[in-house]
Amino acid sequence: MDAISINIHRAQVSITNTRDLEDVNFSSSFSINSEQRHLGIRDKTSLLIAEPEKEREDLRFISQGKITKVKNVEVVKPSKEKIDSNILNGFPPPKDIFVHHFDFSITKKLTKNNLLSDLEYSLKEVNRFNKPIVHFRRQFRVLPQDDFDTITNGWIYAARTVFGRLANAIPRQNKLEFMLEAMNKFSTIDFKEISLQKGLDFLYDYIDRRILSRGRLLVATNDLIEDKLSDIVPIEDIGFRNPTTGNEDTLHPQAQIFKKIFELQGKADFRKYVSQAISENSELESRFLQIFTNETWPIDLRI
User: Fold this and answer.
1) pLDDT digits (tens, 9 = 90+) for 86-136
2) In whole angstroms, what is the distance from residue 176 CA to residue 188 CA?
3) Domain of life here (predicted)?
């Protein structure tokens, strides 16, 4: 086993204050309840301490450490009441629960890019991009050494992160349309052989052609209505209705969002900025390229 990450809201960690887990050389213990007698966690296994963020669906990696001792395993037998209840309701008999105890020590506080939302596109084990925290909700999870190194160093796979955040930010129907157009463009259905850079260039063009162009029309329409009709009807009340779905929305808030986007475009060349970031971190990008060999583009089409 290369490394593990424990969720301190699920595993039973012996601490009086979460900040203790940020202190180098802090030592304590934790336990994991499982139906498995053997978890495969050994002495000196590398350890990550993670805490869910309260206000959003995110996770913060607090520190790294080591398992210093694999201790005893308690066996908790199901109660007679639980056994009788399962039998009465036609369920299988409840299983024994094994409580695994471990000692650990902290070796490093993590501060650089230590949120899961920072790292989700840089981790091989993450594929639920609409809700990456599902990968870390259990008491613990095993991590390959590459992902452990990525987290502890706060390394970001820039090309994949930009691609993933852009692609997964657009509406689902646009994601589907983009994928269909990309399949036709590159004559493939899995994109494992198509570089992220080619994917990024195609995604940039798609967003400009299918989304930003409509945004420009939206802004122009909003400005025209504001100029000609603002004395007759409040601009905030004017909207549109999708004849297919029946969904309704107002025009002005969306036009304001696009205005801000276009203002940002005028201040900085996003494509140039991304290309420069990738170029300046070429060694790190090459590392990730090897790790993600034969991986498809990070687009999540799940609802």
Assistant:
1) 988 999 999 999 999 999 999 999 999 999 999 999 999 999 999 999 999
2) 15
3) Bacteria
**More confident: 244 or 296:** 296
Q: With cut-offs at 50, 70 and 90, classify the pLDDT of residue 40.
A: very high
Predicted confidence at residue 29, as pLDDT, reads 97
**Main-chain dihedrals φ then ψ at residue 6, nearest 5 degrees:** -110, 140
Question: What size, in residues, is the chain?
Answer: 303
> Beta strand pairing status for 3-7 and 12-13?
unpaired
Residue with tokens 């890019």: 113
Q: Distance between CA atoms of 151 and 123, rounded to whole angstroms? A: 8
* Average pLDDT over every residue of 279-290: 94
| Whole-angstrom distance, CA of residue 153 vs CA of residue 25 | 19
CB 64 within 8 A of CB 106: yes
Point out which residues pair with 106 in neighbouring strands: 65
The full set of domain ranges for the chain reads 3-156, 159-291
Q: Count CB atoms within 10 A of the CB of residue 118.
A: 18
| CATH class entry, domain 3-156 | alpha beta
pTM, rounded to two decimals: 0.86
Q: b/e for 4-39, b at 16 or more Cβ within 10 A?
A: bbbbbebbebeeeeeebbbeeebebebbbebeeeeb
**R_g of the chain, CA atoms, integer Å:** 25
